[in-house]
Amino acid sequence: MSNSPFLSVRNLNVCIAPSNGREMTVLDGVEFDVHAGETLGIVGESGSGKSLLSLSIMGLLPDIAKASGQILLEGEDLLSTSETRMCTLRGKRIGIIFQEPLTALNPAMTIGDQIAEGMVCHGGLSWREARLRAVDMMDQVRMPDAKRRAKAYPHELSGGQRQRVGIAIALALKPALLIADEPTTALDVTVQAEVLDLLSDLVDEHGMAMMLVSHDLGVIARMCDRTIVMVAGQKIEEGATRTVFEHPAHPYTRSLLQSVPSRSECGRRSDPEEPC
Questions:
Q1: For the ABC transporter domain, which residue ranges apply (predicted)?
Q2: β-strand partners of 41
Q3: Which of 105, 118, 146, 175 could cross-link with 95 by S-S, CB 3.0 to 4.6 Å?
């Protein structure tokens, strides 16, 4: 792991300013680093600002959102760069996997062409070369019968298969940083484990850094080297994952961990006669 961070977020603030309402702060002074080759977990309950943090880094915030501070990618401030430059960085340097693959994919475009598109636009490949490469990417993400399914449309695939397509799109240009925004939330439990194993293997194989955004403490504990805990748009705790889970410093982190039933409690029901 390099001593110099690949990504540095400094005093990131995001405000939502609707035209007919009061300005609201949704990210407040968030700071952290991501080093090459590490997996950083971002954990918190729904509404804590995790996904907005991902969108801020990708430059995909809605027009009513205003971001300030610094997001430094190898020293380049993404908040100050042009949209043209961001289009170059997306995919080539930073890839993202969205949490709902059915809405993230184009329903009118074949799977193979959606994977190939980025390689044509940003990788300098012809459509023929990119389509062949797309089938290779589908093999990498363990898509069964990849050559045939490259000609399929999103509605013809299962949820797990669609998420594999999302992973293939994110990795097609071999980015140095992968942002996985709740990548298993829309999947059933058995498929979740397969997708997490796949992500772990691909991150190791490609030598990427990964930001894994999740509300699932089990996923974070299993996958991440370091963990950040967020609540109400603020980072309240950061540390090595094992330290955060075994010796939480913040009361909210302790409450979050206590909300997960222990194995000894699984299957137990409280006595209805017991007072609340």
A1: 9-257
A2: 212, 227
A3: 175
